[in-house]
Amino acid sequence: MIQNSPQQTPTRVGIVGLGYVGLPLALAMHRAGYEVVGIDVDESTVENLRAGESTVTDVTDEAVSSAVDGGIEFTTDYKKLSEVNGVSICVPTPLRKTDTPDLSYVIDATESLAPIVPDGCTVILESTVYPSATRDIVASTLRKHRRAATDVPTENQEEEPALTGDGGVVTEPAAESRPVIGDELFLAFSPERIDPGNQEYGQTNIPKVLGGVTPACGDRAAALYEPVFDEVVHVESATEAELVKLLENTFRAVNIGLINELAQVAHELDVDIWNIIDAAATKPFGFMPFYPGPGLGGHCIPVDPMFLSWQANEQGIETRFIDLADTVNREMPTHVIERLVRQLNERGIAPSRSHVVIVGAAYKPDVSDTRESPAIDIIRDLEKWSATVEYSDPHVPTLSVGEATYESVDLTADRLTAADCVVIVTNHDAIDVDQIVDHASFVFDARNATKGDNEHVIRL
């Protein structure tokens, strides 16, 4: 591990993007003794944080209020970063509708940072990107826009030459006035590993992987993060660190795809996939349990493998496992609807005249995040069947599905009794599953929340 020294350890740092990654990181760095400036382009987010109101489920109002009282600064003004020693970029990196990576938020943030941050600053990208993006995109953007703020290229000067490495620094011979990455500016990648809702592993006790664009960059990044995290895992390069993140979530996506496919096979064989998994998990080696569900959701598992697949395809490599798992996982909401419609028909209920209550709209238990949630796809498909649909989620007061906006309803005994079917999509701890089983005439349990044997309960 890299040892800190007074010369290496920055005292003032900036966090760009104050969402589920950036806000906890800002608070953790503040607790570690740094002077912290948090930047977000959304004025309402900044106003709420200044008022001591958290904008992230896993962060309490008390934690934000305490940090504000302790001197942390929240702002929309990038100029506040003109005297920082380190900056962490924590902005979204979604997929476009074409399943290609959208790095526009990263590029915008880097363009805003480039002319502001001082020489010697360490910039760490936390946003998930495809392998080599930190070096090829972020480094180039930093250099281009930093030079643009101070220099005017000559007519013969090449606008954006390729990056080359020499002696541990990244240089561009055609633009000598540009800052040298690894000498004047330091750039690294460190993947976020946050698991929203996880009470055991939080921001600082999950080992922190990082890799620099150059060795010097990696050393500076490690010095920045070691006072904050219990353990820093320093890999050889930014590209290695990028691939670590993609491997972790691709591993999960592929295995979830496998178990989702096996769940469909088990259904046709009229056996219980949940019993099969529990029995297999008794093997003390060579097996890790994964569980089926109504589809993948969230900011990582459905998205990150596509970054890797896209990059591999750009290199002429076919990622068959990744692409097949993605297909299986994306089809799970449709599988749920097909089984649900079949069960309604068997009960003599026309789907077009059915009343269905969806339990859980967030993508996972005990969070409010609905990004890529399978509940949205299930509701959309039920709309196509002209069913009457309601949903209940204690963490999600409203839900947008296409042009429609739904409001969460209370799971009263009367509502459960009146419903033709109750579909458990997300099993929040706050949901009374026993009440659902006691009052609903038909339950489709996509999460094995009910457990046990009940004649009117169908499990995925």
Characteristic key phrases:
Rossmann fold; alpha/beta; five-stranded parallel β-sheet; disordered N terminus; 2 domains; 17 strands; 460 residues
Strand percentage: 5-15%
- Any idea what the shape is? globular
- CATH domain class name of the largest domain: Alpha Beta
So, the CATH homologous superfamily of the largest domain? NAD(P)-binding Rossmann-like Domain
Tally of contiguous helical segments: 13
Named CATH architecture of the largest domain:
3-Layer(aba) Sandwich
Fold-level CATH name of the largest domain: Rossmann fold
User: Total strand count, please?
Assistant: 17
The helix content, as a percent range, equals 25-40%
Low-confidence runs of at least 5 consecutive residues: 1-10, 150-167, 169-176
Radius of gyration: 25 Å
Structural domain tally: 2
General description of the model:
By secondary structure, this protein is of the alpha/beta class. It folds into 2 domains: 12-236, 3-Layer(aba) Sandwich (Rossmann fold); 295-459, NAD(P)-binding Rossmann-like Domain (Rossmann fold, 3-Layer(aba) Sandwich), CATH 3.40.50. The protein is built from 13 helices and 17 strands. It has helices spanning 22-31, 43-50, 61-69, 104-113, 133-148, 215-225, 238-268, 273-280, 304-314, 320-346, 374-384, 413-418, 433-439, and strands spanning 12-16, 35-39, 73-75, 86-89, 122-125, 164-166, 169-171, 186-189, 208-212, 232-234, 355-359, 388-392, 398-401, 404-407, 421-424, 443-445, 457-459. The strands form 4 sheets. An 8-stranded mixed beta sheet has the order 3-2-1-4-5-8-9-10, sandwiched between helices. α6 (215-225) links the parallel β9 (208-212) and β10 (232-234). α10 crosses α11 (374-384). The radius of gyration is 25 Å and the shape is globular. The chain starts with 11 loop residues before the first strand and ends with a strand. 45% of the residues are buried. Residues 1-10, 150-167 and 169-176 have low confidence and may be disordered.
